[in-house]
Amino acid sequence: MSAQTHRFSLSEISVLLRGETQAIAEWSARWDARRFTLHIGVIILGAGLYGAAMGWWRAPQQGLYVAIKFPLIILLTTFGNALINGMLAPLLGLNIPFRQSFSVIVMSHAITAAILGAFSPLIIFLIWNAPPLTTGAAGAPAYSLIILAHVAVIALAGVTGNLRLLQLLQTIGGSRAVARRVMLAWLWGNLFLGSQLSWIMRPFIGSPDLPVQLFREHAMRGSFYEAVFHALQRIFLFH
Amino acid sequence: MNENNPVPPMIPPADRPTPPPVPPLATPPLAGNRPLGDDPAERVAIPHAFAAIEALLRHPRRLMFQLRQPGSGKLIGGMLFVALACAAVYGVVAGTFSGHEQLWAAPVKIAAGLFISATICLPSLYIFTCLSGSQARLAEVCGLLAGLLMLMTILLVGFAPVAWIFSQSTSSIAWMGFLHLVFWFVAMLFGVRFMQNGFAHTNAKSHAGLNVWVIIFLLVAVQMTTALRPILGRSDTFFPTEKQFFLAHWADCLKQQDGENNARGRN
Amino acid sequence: MIAVVVGAGSYGAVMGSWRDPWQAVYTGIKLPLVMLLTTAGNGLLNGMLAPLLGLNLTFRQSFTMVLISFAVTSIVLGALSPVAWFIVYNTPPLAAGTTIKSPEYAVLQLTLAVFVALAGVIGNVRLLPLLRQWSGSARAGLHVLLAWLAVNLFMGSQISWVLRPFIWEANKPVAFIGSDCFQGSFFETVFNAVCRITFG
């Protein structure tokens, strides 16, 4: 590895964002605790700032809770799926060690979190201009606008993170088809666990009719997928 | 700078002589692929804010080159100071529409609003430039944003006499608001063009991200005028007591204007 | 500047002479004033627009160029003054029951406006080759001309509105500037008129 790529600095975040796959592939091949800490720090800071902006509309305390919960979901998903992701990569044709697959996923999440963090001032400004979150606000245009803004920003950050991951996997493995298979497998696994973790850690935006809480009283009751299933049942079977 | 060029004849004769040489622009309006700094004139340091204005208008490549040099912080500071002063000057002109406390409130709100909008949008600008593959450092991104603000605000100062004469003539807030928005939009177009030219020299692969950012900045700045209202017209409080999005506010202004026109028509 | 004062001044005097000798004096002063105030008011903006659009002129040069265009316009207006005077001479005087809706008043207004438009077009057409040669690019020259034209028309229309009347203001005595000079704007009036025509 060249001395230049081995040198550690904060500007590495911009290298990640630019998707300089050659340099990133070299980083992922060699474990560096300081670099790993930096990526984890970016996830905590970026997702935390975005979470604070998200919860702030309901109450400042809700902002604090979501600032803790949002990065926690990303980190728990990353660590929770680390083993299965590390196994899936060689099974699907990408023969990389467990540590490298873990490192690559952390980098892609760092990209997502950096984008989320950069958009947090815009979300704060949007919320500052919105009427307070009161009873009945769910039907107001401001509520829809804020929800749409969250969806757009999270989608942009998520898609960018995964696109960069795909490019990186292609550089490491040399095959586009293999890279796509591995990326999709990891994506499904992370979405599956991430959705359930988000369900447990709700609320995020908060409801004006319910008190500000870190977790709902029956957080561990039911699951995200059961809720989706019941919702579909209600729609199609008119229950 | 071009003082050695005499004024051309009033009506050129049929066998028109070649006009006196005018130094060509250091860069055409849309930057080519020529690397920055290949012309020795571009390497000349920009000593003060007035030279920065001159460079921004006539030799933008010189400014772009200087923004990439180590220690460009002082230059960026000077550019921001000029932008702040010009925004305040334009604010005073906007304030003459209502007079009284608006003579100081409007410049404060316009200058502060512009800078807060830029600060809010800076992180996303940096992210978009990185995503587009640009090699620009954060300082260079800040410098190009400062260039956008400076060009916008000096053009607004150019529009100030026009804005002033309309401020004195009309009593319609909706019309004046529309006029200020048009001036602001024209000024922003030039500012954005400077910024795009700047990023074209940083190996950016596409302008798509920057274009998305321009829309975000536009929306934030327009919303800022609603968040800090009134900038035109008077109010009992410095800040608004009700939160509104700009489209709702504009609709209210038009309704109010319509009501006033109808009342005037009845009288 | 002399060309502007003499050319536009003589045309303005002819315009105002239909109403009253004093109106002739006032309009003879006001018409050049519109051109000079427009040039001065837009001097800074025109000076910024030129380099931004590809023509590297100094502020003083761009100011002079705009003044040259107004001077050409004024010379043409001055040359058209005798023709305009002949039309004014043949239009029934205001005292003979001419109202704002009289056809003769409409013909007078239209003819005078057409002369001004013609002079303006010539002034700008003469400026275009100069701008093209100075910039070395036909596109840049045209862009600068169009930008200058747009801002000068915008400013000039409003200054003319403030300095009205130029020919005659119904039911009002002769005055240098109308008492309601700072009420409303040219474009609001046009917009309201369009609304009235369109929506009734």
Descriptive account of the structure:
The complex is a heterotrimer of chains A (239), B (267) and C (200). Chain A has 239 residues and is mainly α. Chain A has helices at 3-6, 12-18, 21-29, 33-56, 60-80, 82-91, 98-129, 141-173, 176-200, 224-237. By secondary structure, chain B is mostly helical. Chain C is mostly helical. Chain C has one domain. In chain C, helix 2 crosses helix 6 (138-162). The longest helix of chain C is centred in the middle third of the chain and has 33 residues, at 103-135. The model of chain C has no long low-confidence stretch (mean pLDDT 82). Chains B and C meet through helix 5 of B and helix 3, helix 4, helix 5, helix 6 and helix 7 of C.
| Low-pLDDT ranges of chain C | none
Q: Into which percentage range does the β-strand content of chain B fall?
A: under 5%
The total beta strand count of chain B reads 0
Q: How big is the Rg of chain C?
A: 18 Å
Give the termini separation of chain C: 45 Å
Structural class of chain C comes to mainly alpha
Secondary structure tally, helices of chain C: 7
Biggest protein-protein interface?
B-C, 37 and 44 residues
What share of the residues of chain B lie within helices? 55-70%
Give the biggest sheet of chain B: none
Q: Identify the quaternary structure here.
A: heterotrimer
Sequence of secondary-structure elements of chain C: HHHHHHH
Give the overall silhouette of chain C. globular
Mean residue pLDDT of chain B: 83
Beta strands of chain C, count = 0
Query: Shape of chain B, please?
Result: elongated
The average pLDDT value of chain C, as a whole number, equals 82
Could you tell me how far the N terminus lies from the C terminus of chain B, measured between alpha carbons in angstroms? 58 Å
SSE pattern of chain B = HHHHHHHH
